[in-house]
Each structure stands twice: as C-alpha cells, then as structure tokens.
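Hi P.,

Sorry for the delay on this. The queue was packed all week, but I finally got your sequence through. Input first:
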Amino acid sequence: MAKKVKNVILALDNDGVGPVNTEEAIKLLLEKSDIVPFILNPEKLKLHKDPDEYIKANGIKEFKNLLKECEKGLRWLCTRYANADAIKDLIQREGAKNKLLELSLIVKDPEDLAHIKNIFIKTLT
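Then the structure:
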C-alpha cells in the first residue's frame, strides 16, 4: 500500500493447495487493503504445477498471453463458492450462501456487490 499499488495479479500454483491459497490471498487483500486482486486461474496452467514451470515449457511470451485471461479475484471466488458440482446437499448449499454473504460484507465496489447478488440469485435461490 505504501507504494500505491492498486491492482495485483495472483498466479499461484496449480496443485492441491494452490486454489485454496489463492482463495485465502484474495480474501486477505479484500479485507485488509484497497488493492484489487486479479487472478490467473490456476487451472489455466494446465499440466504445469506452477507459473515457473509453465514459463520454462512455453516461454515468457505465452505466459504474458495467459495473463491477459486474468479475472477479478472476487468473481473467481464467487464462481468457486457457487459451483453447482460442489454443492451436493442442503448443508453445502447453506455453506455456499454463507461464504457469499461474508464476501458481500468486505466488498467495496458496487459492481462487485451486484455480481455477488446475481450469483446468489441465479445459483442459490
């Protein structure tokens, strides 16, 4: 924040903990700063475990092209929380609703709040 950073791109590992760490990093940035987190969805690294491995296999130019596919971290979180494949019963559904409601409490951008509301209505009602 001292350097006046407004946006960051998170490109964490595509392994068992990468998506969970991405989730935690997004929430931390949303809660504790005015920095807008964007993410390179770890799944976009495909067979590669991490960004370094992707760059070694495909080159920096391809990685820069991949960065153009970043998405707002909050939107990625909403999709992750409201994933229909992960919601198998009413208890998981309530858990997803609670996570989205918690996100709505830390969001500062009205567009992001509207996005959460739309996801909630389309997926969980």
